[in-house]
Design a protein that fits this description.
Distance between the termini: 42 Å
Structural class: mainly alpha
Order of helices and strands: HEEHHHHHHHHHHHHHHH
Number of strands: 2
Helix content: over 70%
Radius of gyration: 24 Å
Strand content: under 5%
Largest sheet: 2 strands, antiparallel
Strand order of the largest sheet: 1-2
Number of helices: 16
């Protein structure tokens, strides 16, 4: 959730090596190398490498566990918003991503400079806790303010986490002489090994609680006709007492999730070592690069790049498809057709397929290229969407719910892994502005989906989903054709000619 982490990692700047370091008195002391040369790591410092590795690995595992607790609570609560809180829930989700857009532009550098990475993570996690606490009394007055607080804290939290993992990975690579990229990738792999499991644990909790004292779903054929493609949240009774969930189930879930969220902050504060133990100066792409205003200007200026304009629809699609599945599929199909207690189980299937395919697609791209992978993702989405139009949910078709969720997880893995990688390929040397655009337009996709959930019916929403997928694939294919057969026009400095200059011919 909150597609910030991959972009922040991919957009992180490489830090300059300042020579070898030795762990002394619990801190790495840097030794400057001579200009134009790299000082060799003293042989005696290698004796400390196993200890250093254990200390660094301990911190990475602790951070991973803390994030697992936090998103075990948050992800599963998000999956249920349109089912148990209806209009209030979807409005709060739209608010989260609107606040996130603002946060990405201004807050990460400011908070990291002020609080440092460790405490930025701990403090911003409390924003998630406040949103979960609002589930005890979900009204616009409680949900919207806490959603704003969560959205504002999300970007700094993810940036701080990326900065911590990147810098300790860089430091260990310097100590051992290993390739920095390999070490950092390994550490992020450890993190995501834990993080990807959150869909399983969180949804297992929600389904276990909601399945207690739940009988067979008794809906007439007439009632089932209002599910699926005919579902319309705008005409549903949005009051909290009409969701069919006893208060004790709501309070039990909220209590478990709140404990998990608060525990994540405590774990960071108590068990994670400050980054200054490993580096003399805490740096991050946010603090050593452009200022917030400069980054904002660079972000909008980057939209003049022809490829950026062409990839915007597919980037928005990345947010739209996630929001549609989390909000509309769960409410209109699973909750309406099977019962709200089955939402978690179906989402577990989605999460497992998503995680497994995310790991598998990178080697697959190396084998067959990225174009076939993008096309497969689009074809799967088209097939699922057509099925959602034609099929009417029924409790007897339980297997179909899981198959559709699994297929959507496969296609989501394509978009989450390959669009990120594609940005890095087509915008070399422009990581900050490019990935800032990624965050902006993906968040816009979430906002569009969650905002529409309160006013549009499923028929209209599926039309929007199909439109963004189709236009997005046209834009993507246009980039591939231009790049392979035509080539983008460049100026005398070797930079792509902005679209306004292409139109006017002034280049």
């Amino acid at each position: 959730m909150l597609g910030v982490d991959n972009q922040a990692f991919d957009g992180a700047k490489e830090e300059r090596s300042k020579g070898s370091n030795i762990l002394k008195n619990g801190k790495f002391d840097g030794k400057s190398s001579k200009e134009g040369s790299t000082e060799a790591v003293p042989e005696e410092s290698l004796d400390h490498d196993p200890k250093v590795a254990r200390i660094i690995l301990k911190n990475i595992i602790i951070i991973s566990i803390a994030f697992t607790f936090l998103f075990t609570a948050f992800n599963s609560m998000v999956n249920l918003q349109s089912s148990i809180n209806k209009t209030v829930g979807t409005v709060s989700l739209a608010t989260i991503y609107a606040a996130l857009v603002v946060s990405c532009c201004f807050l990460p550098s400011l908070l990291i400079k002020t609080l440092k990475t460790k405490y930025v993570m701990a403090v911003c996690m409390l924003g998630y806790s406040s949103y979960i606490a609002a589930q005890f009394h979900p009204t616009l007055e409680t949900m919207v303010p806490t959603a704003i607080l969560l959205g504002l804290g999300a970007a700094p939290m993810w940036s701080a986490k990326c900065s911590y993992l990147t810098q300790v990975g860089t430091k260990y690579a310097e100590l051992t002489g290993q390739d920095k990229e390999v070490v950092i990738t390994r550490y992020f792999g450890i993190f995501f090994l834990f993080f990807q499991s959150t869909q399983v644990w969180g949804n297992l909790i929600s389904s276990s609680v909601l399945s207690t004292d739940t009988g067979v779903l008794n809906k007439t054929d007439e009632e089932l006709e209002t599910c699926g493609y005919n579902f319309c949240l705008a005409t549903q009774n949005a009051t909290n007492g009409d969701d069919g969930i006893p208060n004790w189930q709501r309070y039990t879930m909220a209590s478990i999730y709140l404990v998990c969220a608060l525990l994540s902050s405590v774990i960071i504060v108590v068990f994670v070592d400050p980054l200054r133990r490993f580096v003399d100066k805490e740096e991050t792409a946010a603090t050593e690069g452009k200022s917030p205003i400069q980054l904002l200007i660079a972000t909008f200026n980057h939209m003049r790049h022809p490829y950026q304009l062409l990839i915007i629809p597919l980037t928005i699609w990345s947010g739209v498809e996630q929001g549609f599945f989390q909000s509309d599929f769960t409410a209109a199909y699973v909750s309406c057709g099977l019962g709200v207690h089955m939402v978690g189980y179906v989402m577990i299937c989605y999460g497992v397929c998503d995680a497994l395919c995310s790991i598998s697609f990178s080697p697959l791209v190396r084998l067959v290229g990225r174009v076939p992978v993008f096309i497969v993702g689009a074809v799967i989405n088209y097939g699922v969407i057509i099925t959602l139009i034609k099929w009417r949910p029924h409790p007897d078709d339980t297997a179909i719910f899981f198959v559709l969720a699994g297929l959507w997880g496969v296609s989501d893995a394509v978009w989450q892994t390959q669009i990120n990688a594609f940005y890095g390929v087509i915008f070399p040397g422009k990581a900050e502005a490019a990935f800032s655009n990624y965050r902006l337009w993906e968040s816009a996709g979430f906002i569009i989906t969650f905002a529409c959930s309160t006013v549009l019916c499923i028929q209209s929403k599926i039309t929007i989903v199909l439109a963004f997928l189709s236009v997005g694939m046209v834009g993507y294919c246009s980039i591939e054709i231009i790049d392979r057969f035509v080539g983008i026009k460049k100026d005398s400095d070797g930079e792509a000619v902005p679209i306004d200059r292409l139109v006017t011919g002034k280049y």
